[in-house]
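Notebook B, p. 112. Complex prediction, attempt 2.
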Amino acid sequence: MPGTDPLLLDEISLLLVWTAVAIYVLAFIAYAIDLARRSDLALKAKDEVVARELVTAGGGGVISSGTASAASPSSAKPRYLWARMGTVLTALGFVFHLVATVLRGVAAGRVPWSNMYEFAMTGLLLIIAVYLVVLTRYDLRFLGSLMTGLAVLLLGGATLAFHVEVVPLADPLKSVWLVVHVFVASLATALFALAFGLSVVQLIQARRERKLADAPADAATKRSFLRTVPNADALESLAYRFAIVGFIFWTFTLIAGSIWANDAWGRFWGFDTKEVWTFVIWVLYAGYIHARATRGWRGTRSAWLSIIGFTAVLFNFTIVNVFFKGLHAYSGLTT
Amino acid sequence: MTDPLRPSDHADSLPAGSGDDVTQPRLGVIGWLRWGWRQLTSMRTALVLLLLLAIAAVPGSLVPQRTADPNGVTQYFTDNPDLAPVLDKLSLFDVYSSPWFSAIYLLLFVSLIGCVLPRTKHHWKALRSQPPRTPARLSRLDGHRTRTIEVEQDADAVAAAAIDSAAAQLRKSGYRVARYDARGSFSVSAERGYLRETGNLLFHGALVGVLIAVGVGGGFTYTGQRVLVEGQAFSNSLLDYSSFNPGRFVGGDTLTPYSMTLDKFDVTYVPPGQPGSGQAGDFVAHVTTQTPGGEAQDGEVRVNHPLDVQGDRVYLLGNGYAPTVTIRDAQGNEVFHDSVAFLPQDANMTSLGVIKVADGLPQQLGLLGFFYPTMDVLPSGALTSTYGALEYPTLTLRVYEGDLGIDDGTPRSVYTLDPSGMTQIAGGDSGTPAIQLMPGQTEDLPNGLGTITFENEAPAGATGYEQSVKRFASLSIHRDLAGPWVLGFALLALFGLLAALFVPRRRMWVKATPREGVVEIEYAGLARGEDPTLAAAVVQLADKHGATLPAQSHPDTGKVD
Ligand code: HEM
């Protein structure tokens, strides 16, 4: 195989990963500026509306502050230039990220998700991919800084801490279930990440809405990007929609993992540490789904469950992989 | 009334009257029981129990568990002599069979069954009932739309025909429909999405199935372990297993008779200088199996690819070297000849093994051996193995003389030697150096006891050490009756879940009211549970139906309120 020296390919891949991280940093900055400026834009837009209403209402009209704050921001749709830039940069970073991941796979001669470094690479690729795909249907750019921030932290961190050179797979990993089980788990993680982001914003938004209800005058003049974001209810039902798709994938992950465990270890379930955490996460999200259907739990409380659920997912990927003893010792790191 | 039955604290059910609480003091025993049962089968209890289950499962990942990691538990007791007994009292080494963990999931499942049974009964009835009566004022509902048809004569006939076609259209898209024509208006009431509740019930029911399959099926399951050296055979009977864990309902006579020989064990190593050098892989145990009266069959056991034999599955658990050693007494009579499995201690297969000579010598002999497939000397002078394959195989042995402690019936592991009550006569502080051998070499035992030979097992004419030492495979033989059932129920749960989460459940109404010169047609929908696409569905219905109406009809604006 001339010209396909795995070491060289991996080096190129690594270079591309760092390029992607750098671009994600820029995207993060653009998104952050966008959030900071949104409040201004929203206020200006509101002022325009107020001004217009003043004009149309003539001298005799009485403008109540209620009308102004109820005017939906879309009535004078501001164009989010920085957000658009953030998205373009994210997409660009994604391309580098994608090529890096594919190259790593080629270098290894197998799917690029067989050790911690590669899990992080593919998992975050999917997170960004799902985010970008969802953007074509919903304007969730207010999550942009969270998503790119996550990518920078985790991809950069994983590359620093977990990068290992390409080595042949250990026998237990040579299985179609590696391809299916790990990929679907990463996909579920990507959806949970999005649901998590929405739940976080939902919590903040709900707080603002409560304040708005308590002291409309104060809160209405406060600048905040939250003005440009859907209301807490809408955020919640969107978060729920991503979470249930993620939950389906996670259920499948659990089943596929059991089938694999039965082939590799001779039992489909043994409460190995990783199995325990996969189960805990599954139960947490089942709890979240129930909470949404339980009176008194819909809203803020269920949002917390979504956040706890995703925290457990991250914990499972990082702490459990590196520090917990178990059969799933595939971080690829020598201890 | 065809709404699914939900626990009274479900977000979609109407808040229960406060009457329940007020009447509490006058409840009799039955009343209290009913009240308790209602609490147990409420959404809140289910939720709290689910969260408790998640929390309760965590400690099992922090503390080693007897089932998953027995050695870890032993180690934990050694490392934390004070804490370990306390944790043990709290069942923290057996979390998943502990009383508190069991209590949580059993309560959860009682709640589940108590919740699902009445709902199933209710749903069964709902499946054969009519969609509900058309509400009097559709304009209050989601995505309400209207359309007017101008008519010259018989407005009633036009209205009826419009509803006929709407009903047909709805039925075609999977709705169950009922006509409600009354007092100057014609309407069709349609409902779909019963599959949502069916899926929900299937999901929860299948979870019960999984639990029962695990619980009952586990009783019919057995696993047995056996170490086989190349060339050795074993028969599938209780006596021939080195350890055997039967389920509650497994008798020894249930084992299917067959025998299995390990012909050869293969493994490859990544050569030095390549990434991952020294890493072992592609383990294959080549075996021959034979049933009584049947033909011998070749098979392979690999990691991830267990071998099916007569309904049993044979797994490869481990492997290693089994040096063949012959010991002769001072007169040259053979007193020991065997291939002894040495347990690998590191990635380069430095292996540890014990040879016990119980008879034939003046005193019992115990030999504690280290085997290095590719021996090298560390700067400290200690020996080590630098590669897993047989490049420079070396066996070193410390020799103990005395009482092996196996005559009084105390069970002793074949892999450990208890040197108490024995005198070390070679190696360590004994003054005599440890015995060191390569395949084919023979040395004298100390004190003129005799000789020891490390046999070279390579076929005649072979060069190099590649086949000089036999390998062993440790096999695990399983019969698992629960597995397929668990998988079946898990898949049912998955399909149920898909239906429960993604099938929209909704009602649709189309109503035609003849007025002077016009027929007004109204469309409206009502979501039952999560249904983000309802409004779009009403629009689609109205548009599609509108297309079938007489040309002089025109849509009014869609009033969405
Ligand atoms: C092992 C325990 C349980 C698990 C893992 C579990 C899981 C789930 C999941 C994933 C859903 C969403 C799917 C759907 O909407 O059908 C769900 C829904 C539901 N569960 Fe459970 N459940 C459990 C126990 C219970 C119990 C004990 C009850 C009764 C109190 C219950 C009542 C319900 C109800 C009423 C829904 C429908 C919620 C809705 O309307 O959206 N579940 N459950």
